[in-house]
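Page header: ASSEMBLY MODEL / two components / 390 residues total.
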Amino acid sequence: MTQTTTRPARNGVDVPTLFATLDAVRATPELAEFQFRAHNTWQSGTHSRTEIGGFYGAGQEDASRGEPFNYDADHPAVLVGGGNAPTPVEFLLHAIAACLTAGLVNIAAARGVTLHRVESTVEGDIDLLGILGLSDQVRNGYRQIRVAFTVDGDASADQLAALVEQSRRRSAVYDVLTSGTDIVIDVTAPAARTA
Amino acid sequence: MTQTTTRPARNGVDVPTLFATLDAVRATPELAEFQFRAHNTWQSGTHSRTEIGGFYGAGQEDASRGEPFNYDADHPAVLVGGGNAPTPVEFLLHAIAACLTAGLVNIAAARGVTLHRVESTVEGDIDLLGILGLSDQVRNGYRQIRVAFTVDGDASADQLAALVEQSRRRSAVYDVLTSGTDIVIDVTAPAARTA
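Prediction written out in full:
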């Protein structure tokens, strides 16, 4: 039997392919240019729905995930919404937890650390006096987000904590949520009518 | 017939209740303190699942949305993931579109503007040389996010654009994604083992 895999899959991560991908991008850096997209359609009131489908990456359009994914968002009843789905700000909490977890699992696999369990609880504090326009002293967004990880794996507590720290250092969502990014907004009113 | 509603519901927004809510928070600012939460559980590889349920707001725990919502995230095959769900960074695009749309619809209702259609397309450009650790010159997160709105409503193009601009000025997600926030990460390794 021919066995050429020297770094086996671990934590559900195909480690040989992960390293091969890094090598391929190192050789052809343009492969690293990605564009992600979403299309949102208003439903009623504060309720809207987003479709997420293909993206551009690794030099081509990518439709490998098949049918588009759909996600709703809404405000809760206490904020005069329909409560049909989480609020937009709650999806930021999903994004940070999922990004740090994916990175942590990849890094653990690359370092040969087997993980048994990874869970995280995220809390975000926000004072709505900002978005309600009732105070100029209060920002619109979260004042603070806290992520509490529980990690069970075949490594010391220090090593497991170091995996999370390395994931944080390489997290796209952490970077955007802590440092911000440029956002450009454009509006077209194709059938604008005089009020 | 007794008709006491002077500002009727519009765009699916209960405008009288919206104004009553603003009045209540103005009278008791502590009602504006909210805490949103999420709990993420690793599945396998880069695939994880987030549960979003109750939150704290308006002075109490709020479970009015019923059963928790669940959302997966994953990396696509080209990034050695399973492609079971969108990437974490794509949920940021959902969040910004949904937040700007909800605000726009509320503001339109408050200003007496009837909307017929609101759609938005979001694009986010990201160079993965950052998160792959292949360049110190490239940031981890999005270089830029663009949101293109199409708004059809009973107002002039300038008035409709002004609704989007006011929504941007009061958007929690826009604030976090452009200005960043404080994120604290904590790690517990309850059953840490020596490697």
